[in-house]
Amino acid sequence: MNDDRKNGGVEESDSEERPALKGSLSLLDKIRSTLANTAPERWEQGGEPLDTGRRFARSQETWEQVFFTDTKNGTLVLRSSTPISNNYFGGGYSFSAAASPRFFIELRGRGWSPKALLDPAFRGAGGIEKAAQVLAEGEVAEQLYLEIELIVRQHREGLRRDFNDSVARLTATIKEAVGETTAADWQVVEGDVGVKGYRAEINNLTVTVACMKNDISTAYSMSVGRFGLVWQCRDPFLMQEVFTLVDESVKTASLEHLGKVLDDML
Q1: Spatial CA neighbour of 107 closest among 136, 86, 127
Q2: Residue 117: helix, strand or coil by DSSP?
Q3: Mean of pLDDT values over 93-121
Q4: Residue 50: CB partners within 8 Å, gap ≥ 6?
Q5: What does the alpha-carbon distance between residue 208 and residue 206 come to, in Å, rounded to a whole number?
Q6: What is the pTM of this model?
Q7: pLDDT, tens digit (0-9, with 9 covering 90-100), for 17-37
Q8: What's the CA gap between 28 and 140, in Å, rounded?
């Protein structure tokens, strides 16, 4: 009887402790779910993986990489900060990791620019920590940083695949697609002296064509873009054909408009 009561007491004590642990896990899961369900395109990225083969003009104490997004209370920053060793060779400094990266989740002011972290010229000694409210660090911050990094990378890889597929479909029939547009669809692109360009939206892609002339040569270009991704045409004959189609369409429309204006004068 006494053993049963004792066991029952232990069980009651365990049950009192479990809700607190469950609550902590639930809070972390809620934070993770909120970040995971934030639209991937809302996240901006600053910095890049450390390349030990590059040379830099200035020495640095850390190598920074961040993901950040605006919130009602400021800029939420997920930060990876790696202590680095500086090795000077002719032409500049090379960096190598001196320790494992440290991870932080920070709240910074609205409109914050990652340049404050990434550019040594803007980084004062001790200023990084003072400029931010640290919301989490260590293992929790590392987990959330890596999860957002994966989400953003997968999103961008998906965008790249979709973009490549869309470009392939468009370029397979680009002359026909351009032929179905009107002069009004094309916007004149201002450029340097001797450069004449046009831009239009075709199949949700931005198509830009241009002609560059000087005293001794004429060259053409054509690019297709969407969501910051850009494909550059390398076929000189195709670029010339497409530009000529657009240019002649615009010229014809201008002459027709001029003819109508002259008719109205009579």
Answers
A1: 136
A2: helix
A3: 89
A4: 63, 82, 84, 95, 96, 97
A5: 7
A6: 0.67
A7: 444 445 555 677 878 888 888
A8: 8
